[in-house]
Amino acid sequence: MTAPAARAAQLRRLLDEANHRYHVLDDPAIPDAEYDALLRELQAIELAHPDLASADSPTQRVGAGVLPGFAEVVHEQPMLSLNNAFSDEEVAEFVQRIEKQLGVAEPEFSVEPKLDGLAISLRYEQGLFVRGATRGDGATGEDVTQNLRTLKAIPLRLRGQAPPVLEVRGEVYMPRAGFEAYNARMRETGGKVLANPRNGAAGSLRQLDPRLAAARPLAFYAYGLGVTDGWTLPARHSQMLQALRGFGFPVSPEVSVARGLGGLLEYYAAIGARRDALAYDIDGVVYKLDHHDQQKAMGFVSRAPRWAIAHKFPAQEQLTTVEAIEVQVGRTGALTPVARLAPVQVAGVVVTNATLHNADQIARLDVRVGDTVIVRRAGDVIPEVVRVVAEKRPLDAHGRPLHAPFEFPSTCPACGSPTEAVRKVLKQTKAGGIEYAEGAAIVCTGGLFCPAQRKQAVIHFASRRAMDIEGLGESLVEALVDFDYVRTVADLYALGLDDFLAMRRRADERDGTVPETVKAGKVATKWAENLIEAIAASQATSLERLLFALGIRDVGESTARTLARHFGALQPIMDADEATLCEVPDVGPVVARRIAGFFAEPHNREVVEALRKAGVRWTEGAPQRSAQGPLAGQTVVLTGALAVMGRDEAGDRLQALGAKVSGSVSKKTSFVVAGEAAGSKLEKALALGVEVWDEARLLDFLNSHPAG
Ligand code: JCF
Predict the structure, then answer these.
(1) pLDDT value of residue 677
(2) What spacing in Å lies between the alpha carbon of 661 and ligand 1's midpoint?
(3) Residue 17 has pLDDT above 90, yes or no
(4) Is 419 helix (H, G, I), strand (E, B) or coil?
(5) 489: Cβ–Cβ under 8 A, 6 or more apart, which residues?
(6) What is residue 674's three-state secondary structure?
(7) Which residue out of 62, 80, 84, 114 has the highest number of ligand 1 atoms within 8 Å of its CB and is therefore the one to mutate?
(8) What range does the domain containing 494 cover?
């Protein structure tokens, strides 16, 4: 075999395998950018050696085979793929070819973001949704009608004067927020995390139980047509999209019309600048000749139109190597492993660290120092390690891995205290039954002796829903703790102007960031004055805020409020034993033990005493043993984004009506209020048959029940 022939065969094998993993198994093996590079190499070889081209080459098809379990759908009109452009030059060539062939200057294009989801086709007959299919290999897809029916974005009946037969093509995708929520839940319960939102969308459509698909936050945008009957198409693609909107399909609000190469590149830059701010992942933008007669004149090459192209953005996944694995310590003492990476550009930003989440995730990935890994950065989420490229693991002379599996340190990296494994409580019952999350968190036992935990404790204490000290941000707290101005939260109340100014000076000198104005003898003091004022303002607070601010593990806002109402004052809470605490509604044995344990610690009692001495006052009242109001005795969970009033305010209003607002869904939940992009909680509510309200219903209820 000649060298090019051998390489072509090798590339086809690699691409076929990667294709199968990605499209069929939803378990990608190499990053998209790597796949694209291999495919282009193969295309180049086949172009230079036409005798090597073959019908079964990955360059001749898109996607892969059909999985068993769903019926096959033969696409009456094949679902096309798009050619890609990776540079401005390639876009210029695309435009020039069109201008030359059509003899027009600066033609108009319909332009849109290219979503990173799953292409589907929706068929409507007499205005009714009759069948939905995945693209599959472009010629044959899978019938996923039942799952698609569950997407609210997909109309079941068309609006207006719809044609007798209409096939609409578009992209099903999972918004980032829903993807993050889903993965957070999977990490907690030890389930399988999704590699990326694209896999989330594809996997959901492949659920055989449509109820599972229904609970996933999937969305859809229409971008094209299949067969139609009885419809005189508008002259332009952009007008056709307008018409689809009229029939009730979601069309991206980002679609626009651009003229000539200049217009395309301008659009590319404008969308690129907003890429991180979009609610979903995109991997480029699509340009399509706007006039249908011009499209027709350009025609097709194999499976892709000559009148359209996808202009790709820098990939969201890249290969790099792990230089070290370090651990960071959070407020509750939980150790979070972080991979230090050889710097790599991911989606336009240099990435040097990625989160490894927790011990279970490290074990699942088996990531080790020296490993080559796929890192992913999308939007403003923290970059993460998606997987290890096992074949590239460095080996010793005996072919054994050079580095051992990562082990969590037995002492805290911030304070040297021993670490221990703590299983996170998922559920608890009054009878004493406890359900744990799958994996264990490794935590530092140093408590507030540990500077890392002290910093986080102060940040939590100052946060908006706790003591609400405006302006006391993370970097200030770091410096206050590092330079020993603050050992406990009570120390905040003793800080004066000189302390803040001296501390700022020391921090700037340490970091080499002394401003020129300060060197010239001018010292800004306004920020410190404002801060002192904000700290003083926090002295008058409520018992529930104070309880929440203390940062007792597993005592969130809702539990703090219940405790405050039930006991009315702090002293009886501090003195209560576990059995007494268990009498409080929704306080189970685990939380009772945490509260009693917290106040059994002399140090914690001293902090409360010091806060009192520092002038912190909280409202106390008579014990209130049961809630009043139309929602008394009901437990409500809020999830997803609410558009009109926000979750915090909605929670306050529901509480004012007597409801208990909880963070997790169980059989005892009275109802769940689900906003935009609701994720695992909605999923659980549906699975348990718990009533679900949308935002409109909530607003109706609140409007008809003004708080007394
Ligand atoms: O958003 C997309 N991923 C997308 C894919 C948008 C389009 O307008 C497409 C596409 C694939 C094929 N148009 C074609 C013809």
Answers:
(1) 78
(2) 43
(3) no
(4) strand
(5) 457, 458, 461, 549, 607, 611
(6) strand
(7) 114
(8) 446-538
Q: Do 18 and 43 belong to one domain? A: yes
Q: How far is the CA of 16 from the centre of ligand 1 (A)?
A: 22
On whether both 553 and 568 belong to a single domain, the answer is yes
Angle between helices 260-274 and 88-102 (to 10 degrees): 150
Q: Are residues 181 and 112 in the same domain?
A: yes
pLDDT bucket at 62, cuts 50 / 70 / 90: very low
- Output the domain CATH number for residue 102: 3.30.470.30
Confidence check: pLDDT of 240 > 60: yes
How many CA atoms within 13 Å lie on the side-chain side of 413? 14
Which residue minimizes the CA distance to atom 12 of ligand 1? 81
Per-residue pLDDT of 561-598, as tens digits, reads: 999 999 999 999 999 999 899 888 778 888 999 999 99
Query: Are residue 267 and residue 401 in the same domain, yes or no?
Result: no
Q: Are residues 559 and 658 in the same domain?
A: no
Q: Which atom of ligand 1 is nearest to the CA of 304?
A: 15
* Amino acid code (one letter) for 642: L
Which of the residues are catalytic?
Answer: 114
Q: How high is the pLDDT of residue 612?
A: 96
The per-residue pLDDT for range 332-344, each reduced to its tens digit, is 788 999 999 999 9
pLDDT 10s digits, 615-642: 999 988 888 875 677 888 788 999 888 8
Residue 580 shares a structural domain with residue 525: no
Indicate the number of domains in the chain: 6
Report the nearest-CA residue for atom 6 of ligand 1.
114
Ligand 1 centroid from CA 223, angstroms: 6
429 within domain boundaries? no
| CATH number, position 668 | 3.40.50.10190
Q: How many of the other CB atoms lie within 10 Å of CB of 688? A: 13
- Does residue 628 belong to any structural domain of this protein? no
pTM for the predicted model, two decimal places: 0.67
**CATH number reported for the structural domain that contains residue 559 in this entry:** 1.10.150.20
Query: What residue spans of 158-259 are helical by DSSP H?
Result: 176-189, 197-205, 210-215, 237-247
Give the count of beta carbons closer than 10 Å to the beta carbon of residue 198.
25
CA 218 – ligand 1 centroid, Å: 17
Domain at 346, CATH number = 2.40.50.140
| Ligand 1 pocket, CB under 6 A | 80-82, 112, 114-115, 119, 171, 223-224, 286, 308
Residue 376: its H or E element = strand 372-376
Q: Which of 298, 314, 301, 312 is closest to 95 using CA atoms?
A: 298
Report which protein residue has its CA nearest ligand 1's atom 5.
114
Last residue of a domain, one of 538, 572, 587: 538
What percent of the chain stands above pLDDT 70?
Answer: 93
Residues whose CB falls within 8 Å of the CB of residue 338, separated by 6 or more in sequence, listed in order? 325, 326, 327, 328, 353, 354, 355, 356
461 and 594 in a single domain? The answer is no
Most informative mutation of 80, 84, 118, 223 for ligand 1 (most atoms within 8 A of CB): 223
| In a domain? residue 625 | no
Domain co-membership, 140 together with 172: yes
Instruction: Give the pLDDT of residue 178.
Output: 86
Residue 592 lies in a domain: yes
Report yes or no: 554 and 560 within 8 Å, Cβ to Cβ.
Answer: no
Ligand 1 centre to CA of 121 (Å) is 11
50: CATH? 1.10.287.610
Closest-CA residue, ligand 1 atom 4, reads 114
